[in-house]
Amino acid sequence: VTPSAPEPEPEVETPAPIAEATRPPVVKPPPPTPKKEEAPVKAEVEADSPRPQDGRLLEVLLSGQGLFRRFNFSDDRAGSLPNYNLNHAAAASLSVGYFPLSHFTDGMVRNLGLVVRGSRTFGLSTQTPDGTEYGTTAQMIEGGLRFRLPLQWLELSMGALYGTHSFAVELPPESTLALPDVDYRFAQVELGLYKALTERWAIAARVGYQHVLSGGEISSDSFFPELSGSGLNGELAVEFALTRMLGLRLGGEMRRYSLSTNAAEGAPVFAGGAVDQYFSGNLGMYLRL
């Protein structure tokens, strides 16, 4: 038996090559640009402004004054009442404003505070027509409440005060000179303004009205017991700040009392009224905290 010839094995077909997707060329990123290292910028410290900020706790002003006075009676029919002229006198004044509520709150009520002002002459004397000199004293003290209202461009203030303003010549009891002393007791309302012009310069102004409650010797039974009167006062000053807390202040002040005697016809001493005026120039230093 002859074996049959083996059948030929089927040819294995070579697989067709798999088509590969074309890869995009790899683009290398450009090398980073070298950065310059900048020196760190130091924060600049701004110098404190010499002008104080709102909400000051304490204000103190100490000044020297040059004082002038003019006192004149009107309608003095008998001509027995002398007028008084003071051409120059030296005085010192002190003003203190304190706002205690600033310790406890930042609200509007912190602007309500206390104010006290006073002035007194020193080394003053009065020479009578016969050439005799007598010691003389002039002083003013007033105090009360003050409310300040800070606005965008300026500061307003309002005050209600009680005060006394006296001018006394130490005449001996036997003197026949009919020159009455004055000791005005008054209630006062006032309005003030403060305006910063630059970092160092500022202006301040104040006006007040006084209702005279009594006049001292001039309103006694010896002169005009029915005396009544009122007063006006004003101040204008310029300031220069030396530091944030200290500065100089130069200004002038005027006080004018208009008096009506209300004397009856035939009274032992008769005059229709009187005008009592005071002028002063002030130079001082202030402290604000």
UniProtKB/TrEMBL annotation:
Biased composition range(s): Basic and acidic residues: 34-52
Region ranges (Disordered): 1-52
Biased composition, class Low complexity, residue ranges: 13-25
Name assigned to this protein: Uncharacterized protein
Domain of life: Bacteria
